[in-house]
Amino acid sequence: MLVFYCYEVEDMSGDKVELGLYRYQAQWLTDLEVPLVNKFYRTHGFRGKAKRFENCAVVRYQGEGIIASAYIRDHGCFKLVAGVAVAPTHQGRGVARQLLTLLAERFDEKTYTFPYLGLEPFYASLGFYAVDISMLNETVRQLYLSYRQQGRNIKVMAYTSVS
What we know:
Largest sheet: 8 strands, mixed
Order of helices and strands: EEHEEEHEHEHE
Number of helices: 4
Radius of gyration: 17 Å
């Protein structure tokens, strides 16, 4: 489990207004807890659908339950980081960064993600780099192209350790 705090301050007409200190917990789920993630996705209208036996992590917030989730889907010859979602009321507080930092414990050189356009700088800051689709193995390329055909405006990025 990873515990982190976010202290939010808003500037209102030159005055600093303190919004508070937020305590979050990022943690891995057991296989039995995975259905809770799918309920979170449905509640907030996100596309994700985690399966049992996948590496699935969440962020919980003081008494609100799950406010963010992501999972790693193992496709055999590669892993895909998917279902990265943060509840709208918690976006912009570094929650996704902390969630992906926890997931990175299980990344390797065969880990990919397909982020929406505009999120490339965020994923690059976490150790992902853009990959030309002509350089992908056939399995990764076919999955990526199937998502593109669904109308998703995405890129393909691969992980490299930042250490």
